[in-house]
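The material for today's practical consists of a large collection of protein records. There is nothing in a record beyond a sequence line and a structure line. Backbone structure tokens are a discrete shorthand for how the chain folds in space. Nothing more is needed to start thinking about how sequence determines fold. As an example, a complete record with its sequence and its structure tokens follows.
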Amino acid sequence: MKKSVTKMVEEFRLFWKNYVFQSLFATCATFIVFLFLGLQHVVIIASIGATAFIIFAMPKSITAKPRNVIGGHSVGLLCGYLCALIPHHLFLPSIIIYSFAVGFSIFIMVITDSEHPPASGTALGVAIRGFSLEVTIAVITSVIILSLTHHLFKRYLRDLT
């Protein structure tokens, strides 16, 4: 344990600017999402927050690539909206449909090679809340901003994990 703590302290000492810089980027990105969506769409905000983590803490990950971020959340939106169209007024049918939204989004992301784990959270949130132009615009705008930031600052970002 002592060696791992020593290693963590040394990494932080060497790369503290990256830790601060990248965490501030994630904070700003999440703030912008809150401005667009507000607290009534907290499930969607949570999936965008997880995307911000991947982009700014693990920028070299395949799931941080713009294709995966934008494609994955687009798949999540589509799968969530399709599942929201299925009538479900009782508890059991609802949880089956919500679960299907997650599984369906994973299936489509894997087939289209656009895997992005937080996008399944988008599918779940949209399946629960139903179609909303506001959510669609906010998610697409958020993932484009996050992907653009990742692209523009990629050479300054390092994996923090």
Observations:
- Residues 2-37 form the longest helix (36 residues).
- The mean pLDDT is 91.
- DSSP finds six helices and no strands in the chain.
- Residues 2-156 form one domain.
